[in-house]
């Protein structure tokens, strides 16, 4: 089996495992209903225990985040002892904001948040990375932003990523790579700024930062272990337009935030997601972002992990950035966009073959680390595509397919009662999420009354629907497309931004 065939085999793994699981549930519910019923009960118990376990991580991250938000991190930086490593005053922030055709108002809000940060703006190198395919509307927005904000930073650059570069995949990864190479060529190298003194933050164009964000990032960079071998991950809050979002959209937005919060308390499993930061020196050494993929935000972790022989980690910041929730002017278009966004995130399964192929080639990574990451990554995507289906949809199959003999057994009678009881206990995790979602709401608009808190709490009853329709289904579709390959592969879908 040559390399290309082996890589193709790795692509088949996640989708095949998901479909084998689903088919076996159907088949065994017919051929061995008693055994399948016992498995479903045990699986529900496992899911309950995991829900409780993760809810403790969620609460731990929430507590650490609240403490972080109270601290003046710029003052903390000034109190750091001067070492031979770096002076805090020498840390530059390279901020890359890729954009396509997003409205001027959204881009403006992101830049306004940058100007309100308390970190010295003479250390900011800002790139507005536009696309040639964005046409004149995108260029017009870029010119207006430059006119209004360009003089407020140490350096400001507009780049235009050319269309139809041979071998490239249209998307954020190729745009970011073009922008980073341009800033290196035009500004960083001519000014001879040491690469190790530059922190690169790649933000979605709708990302807004709090005043203390870059001070917090700098402090963590200066105090963490081996900062030149680390990425830095904030907590994504999808709350910029949360009050314009329908209930299903709010639940999905907060669910993503809560998952990332849980991962912050499990840094050994944390990989980069959406807006994040990393040293510019490492970015240059690995050759920047891959330009032929969709999921560049998570792929950059694996590029670094493999390049540095497992000497790479993601450091949680326990500090938020805010972005837009997925919403459009029409309800059903919002639902469709939500599905497409979740499917694009589910396409992160394309990193599984990249990871496995990298592990196969790299003999310097310890075998135990290969097993750890391979199992947890594959298991995570498998759970994404199957868990909700097993719990909320397929758990009744033994009663339907088991036949008369099984339906007259005591186990058949108790199966729905046991599963309902377990699901009732699992409400503990949903209630925790509901409470936190209300606490984390941004400043309320004038129309928001006390009664709205009740509806925003009650919306979490929609969780089973969101887990299946906007969780399992898009995850399963993404993995199936990867398994089928060819014309079924996903392209980069730009999430429409709306106010």
Description of the structure:
- Helix content is 59%, strand content 10%.
- It is α/β, with parallel strands linked by helices.
- It has 2 domains: 3-59 and 374-488, no CATH class; 73-333, Spore Coat Polysaccharide Biosynthesis Protein SpsA, Chain A (Alpha-Beta Complex), CATH 3.90.550.
- The strands form 2 sheets. A 5-stranded mixed sheet has the order 3-2-1-4-7, sandwiched between helices. Strands 5-8-6 form a 3-stranded mixed sheet.
- Strand 2 (124-131), helix 5 (135-149) and strand 3 form a beta-alpha-beta unit.
- Helix 1 (3-31) crosses helix 12.
- It is globular, with a radius of gyration of 24 Å.
- The termini are far apart.
- 43% of the residues are buried.
**Low-pLDDT ranges:** none
Report the major sheet. Answer: 5 strands, mixed
Cα distance, first to last residue? 52 Å
CATH level-3 fold name of the largest domain: Spore Coat Polysaccharide Biosynthesis Protein SpsA, Chain A
CATH architecture of the largest domain: Alpha-Beta Complex
User: Proportion of β residues?
Assistant: 5-15%
Count of beta strands? 8
- Strand arrangement, largest sheet? 3-2-1-4-7
- Helix count equals 18
Helix/strand/pairing category: alpha/beta
Shape: globular
Mean pLDDT: 92
Q: Can you tell me the number of structural domains? A: 2
CATH superfamily of the largest domain: Spore Coat Polysaccharide Biosynthesis Protein SpsA, Chain A
CA-based gyration radius: 24 Å
Give the helices and strands, then pairings.
Blueprint: H1 3-31, H2 33-70, H3 73-78, E1 92-98, H4 104-115, E2 124-131, H5 135-149, E3 155-161, H6 172-191, E4 198-202, E5 208-209, H7 213-223, E6 230-237, H8 247-264, E7 276-279, H9 280-286, H10 296-307, E8 313-322, H11 331-346, H12 351-361, H13 367-392, H14 397-401, H15 403-407, H16 410-439, H17 450-458, H18 463-484
Parallel strand pairs: 1-2, 1-4, 2-3, 6-8
Antiparallel strand pairs: 4-7, 5-8
